[in-house]
Write a structure and sequence with these properties.
The complex is a heterodimer.
Chain A: H1 8-33, E1 44-51, H2 58-75, E2 101-108, H3 113-125, E3 131-134, H4 138-151, E4 154-157, E5 174-176, H5 181-196, E6 201-207, H6 210-224, E7 229-236, H7 244-251, E8 257-261, H8 265-276, E9 283-284, E10 287-288, E11 290-295, H9 298-304, E12 312-315, H10 324-337, H11 343-362, H12 367-374, E13 378-379, E14 387-389, E15 396-397, E16 400-405, E17 416-422, H13 424-427
Parallel strand pairs in A: 1-2, 1-3, 3-4, 4-5, 6-7, 6-8, 8-11, 11-12
Antiparallel strand pairs in A: 9-10, 12-16, 13-14, 14-15, 16-17
Chain B: H1 2-32, H2 39-57, E1 60-69, E2 75-81, H3 82-87, H4 89-97, H5 99-121, H6 131-153, E3 169-171, H7 172-175, E4 184-186, H8 187-209, H9 211-221, H10 223-228, H11 233-255, H12 265-280, H13 285-302, H14 305-310, H15 314-329
Antiparallel strand pairs in B: 1-2, 3-4
Helix pairs in contact in B: 1-8, 1-11, 1-12, 1-13, 2-5, 2-6, 2-11, 2-12, 5-11, 8-9, 8-11, 9-11, 12-13, 12-15, 13-15
Classes of the chains: A alpha/beta, B mainly alpha.
Chain lengths: 448, 343
């Protein structure tokens, strides 16, 4: 027979004392030993990849994750090196970042701002991520960028196209490689005017959230500047699936162009509905009715099938580009995964390399050092020609592609063809441009 | 006038989908007393039956074309569907082109089986449990089914086109004396409306004119008495569950060319279809059909620009406003039985 002295209260007390004892060293290292949030102390550094692994943009998120994994391989000296070989900066040596092996954790944004913030917070607080990157939605990017600013870590945005990300919601710790709605308008409008004439009447259907609003504003401004008239702008709910009741009123107007400020499933469905209702065969005043999709994505164009043929839009990057950097990335990605990368994959791969390179050049992971290294950084060899990370708003400035749905695709990936590479000068704007006004970059935050 | 006619036409196909889903929902509620939140998932599975058959028919073998290269610069692998090599290019292409109508035949046994497994494997254990339990378990099942579909088919919509013969649209305006291109309506949406009408008529005829249907209707009215007469009503109700699943599945198959199927489409329709059932009257088959078309047309009207400019956001809430008004003034719904939802 044995006597036990364990009581429920005793166990709780012992547990609390033991827990405090275990936590004490961590509290010290977190608050006083580290110079900045999540300063890597060991032989590795952890990056946080926050992408939609569920929800409507899960396919884009999966492609982003593939690109991140490829970038980590290349940074650690594995694989063929991809665009590290063509990148104009030669600071990266293939031995990790600052000699520390690159490791990563992933989070699921679910394309919901609250879920994205929760997963980013968890990666920063529990996993010690020194940088957060990813996302396939502007709403999510803006939310996570704000969180990273508060937490004192760098945020390298993924696929976010709203002007607000580097406009009124810009933050010192946040950087965007992807182009934005203003750039789409500036690149696309001259092509539209040249092909369809400068006296067109446009009807806009717009997804009712930050990205849709800024894209509509940008396209309206750029097309009206070239002589187009805007007949109507109609907001459509993000959750809409059948757009027929929004498409049919177009028939009652004298509009001869329909601009679909939609992305993802919205774009697939609205474009499909527009084609079903005969808009592509419609004639107005002896001219063909035209449909425009200002932001194209190859992954989503696949869902629209034949309907995208001949339709003009813009994109950040396309795998068919023949420059050395794009070819190296397509070869590396295609060999590993068996299909070409999407623009989402390209932009996040670039962001990972750019962050790592900035750390190397700054000689530190300290966010303020990284910010200093990235601000005004000029580079080449990452697939978009000469590019600058503007210091005023942390937006990348580079050439923009105007693309068209291909008439005779040779494969399931061959959906878009590049119509024009719009030079960076044409899409550059003043940092105080009204569409980007109202924000304040503020000072970098190193946390800790 | 032309705008009103156009919105009525618009409401018909949306109303057709609501009516078909709501018909199955109310059939299940009327026979088994189960509130089935997985019914939208059955609609989604039906649409993916169309996607699956299209993919099955498009299964291909690869031949290397040395004259062309792929994205990596390797010789291009050209895919040729087996069906085209078996039946010749033209016949094979025509069979693939008609994959959605063919999927009607393909989906019926699948949906009956899915319905049977769902009812026997899970839902029958919840007959005597509160409605809240039924809602929780069927909602959970719906999420599991949609995640399985997403895992298998991906998150992006998959285009599943109508046969070439039904592409394009019909100019009703010219027929009615309006200017051309003012009132046009896609051929496939007309087909969908006609198909929905045939299915609804077939279900009603089955319940009205067959012995089986008569027993089911008797069971719906007084399950206990029918049981006392020595009739195994449970077995018939299980068959009715399969039938309701097949109706939802067929609605999904034919809807695939209207909006490219995606894993979430069932959820998009589910809530609205429940509102349709409540407005029509829980357990009332004619009520479900009437409310389906009525709410589909109302929703279309509410999205007209001049109405939205007067009441912003009305297109998103009109159906719920009608539901609130009906529940306040006539809790049993438009054609519901006296006593149902009124205690």
């Amino acid at each position: 027979m044995s006597n036990s002295n364990f009581t429920r209260r005793g166990v709780l007390k012992s547990g609390a004392v033991a827990g405090a004892g275990v936590a004490l060293p961590t509290i010290f290292t977190a608050s006083s030993a580290a110079a900045y949030t999540n300063e890597p102390m060991g032989s590795s550094v952890t990056l946080g990849f926050n992408v939609p692994q569920s929800g409507p943009y899960a396919d884009e998120g999966a492609d982003e994750l593939r690109a991140y994994q490829l970038a980590v391989e290349h940074l650690n000296g594995e694989g063929d090196g991809g665009m590290m070989n063509t990148f104009s900066s030669k600071a990266l040596q293939g031995n990790g970042i600052l000699g520390k092996k690159v490791e990563y954790v992933t989070g699921d944004t679910q394309t919901k701002s609250d879920a994205a913030r929760a997963s980013a917070k968890s990666m920063i607080e529990k996993d010690g991520a020194v940088m957060i990157t990813g996302g396939s939605s502007s709403g999510v990017a803006i939310a996570v960028q704000g969180l990273c600013q508060e937490a004192g870590v760098i945020f390298m945005a993924g696929l976010t196209h709203s002007n607000d990300t580097t406009g009124k919601d810009k933050k010192a710790n946040g950087f965007r490689h992807f182009f934005n709605a203003y750039m789409s308008g500036a690149a696309l409008a001259p092509v539209l005017a040249a092909r369809y004439g400068s006296d067109r009447k446009a009807y806009h259907l717009t997804a009712d959230y930050t990205w849709g609003w800024t894209q509509e504003e940008s396209i309206v401004a750029s097309t009206e500047a070239l002589g187009w008239e805007t007949v109507n702008t109609v907001k459509t709910p993000l959750a809409a699936t059948d757009f027929s009741s929004y498409i049919t009123p177009v028939l009652q107007t004298d509009a001869d162009v329909l601009v679909l400020n939609h992305y993802g499933g919205n774009m697939v469905n609205s474009l499909t509905n527009a084609v079903q209702f005969g808009l592509r065969e419609k004639q107005v005043n002896g001219r063909n009715f035209e449909i425009v999709v200002p932001l194209f994505s190859r992954l989503m164009a696949r869902g629209a099938g034949e309907n995208i043929k001949g339709i003009l839009g813009s994109t950040n990057w396309h795998w068919s580009l023949t420059d050395e950097g794009s070819q190296a990335f397509v070869k590396s990605f295609g060999t590993k995964y068996g299909f070409p990368p999407s623009q989402a994959a390209h932009t996040v791969y670039c962001q990972t390399l750019l962050y790592a390179d900035a750390c190397e050049r700054a000689g530190t992971f300290n966010p303020c050092g990284v910010v200093e290294a990235l601000e005004g950084f000029e580079f080449d060899g990452l697939g978009n020609g000469k590019t600058t990370y503007r210091a005023d708003d942390h937006q990348c400035f580079k050439d923009v592609l105007v693309v068209r749905g291909k008439e005779n695709p040779t494969s399931e990936f061959d959906l878009l063809e590049v119509v024009e590479v719009t030079p960076v000068e044409q899409v550059t704007y003043d940092p105080n441009h009204p569409m980007f006004a109202g924000g304040n970059l503020g000072a970098c935050n190193e946390g800790a | 006038m032309d705008a009103i006619l156009l919105q009525i036409l618009n409401g018909l196909d949306k109303g057709s989908a609501y009516a078909l889903i709501a018909l199955g929902l109310t059939l299940i509620f009327g026979t088994l007393g189960v509130v089935n939140f997985a019914h939208g998932a059955l609609f989604m599975i039906g649409a993916f039956c169309a996607v699956s058959l299209q993919r099955l028919l498009s299964l291909s073998f690869e031949t290397v074309d040395p004259t062309r290269t792929d994205f990596l610069g390797n010789p291009l692998k050209v895919k040729t569907p087996y069906i085209e090599s078996w039946f010749g290019p033209e016949t094979g292409a025509a069979i693939i082109d008609w994959s959605v109508p063919l999927a009607i035949l393909f989906s019926i046994p699948i949906m009956l089986l899915v319905g049977f497994i769902m009812e026997r494997g899970l839902i029958k254990h919840f007959y005597k449990r509160p409605h809240a339990d039924q809602i929780l378990v069927t909602f959970g099942l719906a999420i599991v089914l949609q995640e399985l579909v997403k895992h298998w088919f991906g998150a992006n919509p998959i285009q599943t086109g109508a046969p070439e013969a039904f592409k394009g649209s019909f100019d009703f305006g010219v027929l009615l004396g309006f200017d051309p291109n003012l009132i046009i309506y896609p051929y496939w949406r007309m087909v969908y409306f006609g198909f929905a009408a045939v299915i609804v008529a077939a279900v009603f005829a089955f319940l009205q004119f067959t012995t089986f249907g008569m027993v089911v209707r008797a069971g719906m009215a007084d399950r206990e008495t029918v049981g006392l007469l020595g009739i195994n009503i449970d077995k018939r109700f299980t068959i009715m569950f399969g039938l309701a699943a097949a109706v939802a599945g067929l609605a999904g198959v034919m809807y695939a060319p209207i909006n490219s199927p995606n894993y979430h489409m069932g959820m998009d329709f589910l809530v609205l279809s429940f509102v349709v059932v409540v407005v029509g009257g829980m357990g009332s088959l004619p009520g479900a059909v009437l409310a389906g078309f009525m709410l589909g047309i109302l929703e279309s009207f509410a999205s007209m620009n001049w109405i939205k400019s007067m009441i912003p956001g009305i297109d998103q809430i009109i159906i719920y406003l009608v539901a609130i008004a009906i529940l306040l003034t006539r809790p049993r719904g438009l054609m519901g039985r006296k006593g149902v939802m009124e205690d």
